[in-house]
Amino acid sequence: MSGGAADSARRASALALVGFMGAGKSAVGRLAAKRLKVPFIDTDALIEVREGPIAAIFAARGELGFRALERDVVVEVLEAALREPCVVALGGGAVLSADVREALERLPDVAWLTAPADVLWARASARGGRPLAKDEQAFRRLLEERNDLYRRVASTEVLNDGSRALAAVAREIAALAADGGVDGGADGESHRAPGHGEDRG
Predict the structure, then answer these.
(1) Residue 63 included in any domain
(2) Could you give phi then psi for residue 87, rounded to 5 degrees?
């Protein structure tokens, strides 16, 4: 075996994962980072380490209070990612912040993990404890509202609907950081989205 994996790690750039609740950002991001041999940062987990459970933050500060905290943490992490290659998984609502969207624009690659609404709901509701995953109709409305924001910030859209193993999804995600972008991988499940800052109508 050649030094391909080591070469990929040396050439890896920062990569952010965005998407709705249940898209699999944490699981896929962790595997992609391991493949690239770079750190993995889950911003929701980082918030919980610093401030306690997200559900408790919602209860104590409301969604607006949580979003302000989330914005600060995510922007801090994304700015650090510009200096040190890593894979960052963002919470589903992080893109609501204009500051976060601006920080994402500066990253070379932002992958939007997608899945059908019923798959996302099944995953998110099964975990429990998610403040915004208690009512399916509200969940679906929120997904529709956020999809345009994910589309705006993403350089690539990657399907993670359960039809492929997480390792296969992670391999395509890792290829973004290692090779400067995927234009439809071997499995044909990824495609390049409009570039950062383009007018998407």
Answers:
(1) yes
(2) -115, 125
Cα R_g (the chain), whole angstroms: 16
Question: Which helix (DSSP H) or strand (DSSP E) does residue 139 occupy?
Answer: helix 136-153
d(CA 180, CA 175): 7
In a domain, 193, yes or no: no
Residue 6, in any domain of the structure: no
Residue span of the structural domain in which 164 resides: 12-187
What's the distance, Cα to Cα, between the start and end of the chain in Å? 47
Residue whose pair of structure tokens reads 């980082």 in the numeric block:
46
Q: Which residues contact 78 (CB under 8 A, 6 or more apart)?
A: 14, 16, 88, 100, 103, 104, 106, 107
- CATH number of the domain residue 51 falls in: 3.40.50.300
Do 89 and 60 touch, CB atoms closer than 8 A? no
**Cβ atoms 149, 101 nearer than 8 A:** yes
Count of structural domains within the chain: 1
Structure-block tokens of residue 26: 């944490």
What is the pLDDT tens value at each position of the chain, 201 positions in all? 344 444 443 456 799 999 999 999 999 999 999 999 999 999 999 999 999 999 899 999 999 999 999 999 999 999 999 999 999 999 999 999 999 999 999 998 999 999 999 999 999 888 765 666 677 889 999 999 999 999 999 999 999 999 999 999 999 999 888 765 433 333 434 444 444 433 333
